[in-house]
Amino acid sequence: MEEIELSIMNIIINAGEAKTHAYEALRKVNEGEYDAADEEMKKSNDALEVAHNFQTSFIQKEASGEKVDIGVLFVHAQDHLMTAISEKNLIEQIIELRKVVNTLLKK
């Protein structure tokens, strides 16, 4: 597998890891496990950072004049990354709402 394909696969893999950890954080907060949820969100953010760094390397190459051959696999990776970012952002909001609901249910 070529370097460009490995980089693309790293975007896909890390975006998937980010989504997995974000959904696990939501599951944890639903159970009232706030510290564990925070740890899962940290893992989600870390995975997104790795994926974003691979994406940025493509942008930097293109910006420096190097031709980057964009194929369907790269588009697929971009879809995964943008979906992971969007879902993580929504899950963060749901987590905050769930904390409020959990607090109200305890009263």
UniProtKB/TrEMBL annotation:
It comes from the Bacteria. This is PTS mannose transporter subunit IIA. It comes from Clostridium omnivorum. PROSITE patterns: PTS_EIIA_TYPE_3 (PS51095). The modification Phosphohistidine is found at H76. Keywords: Phosphotransferase system, Sugar transport, Transferase, Transport. Pfam families: PTS_IIA. PANTHER family: PTS SYSTEM N,N'-DIACETYLCHITOBIOSE-SPECIFIC EIIA COMPONENT. InterPro entries: PTS_IIA_lac/cel, PTS_IIA_lac/cel_sf.
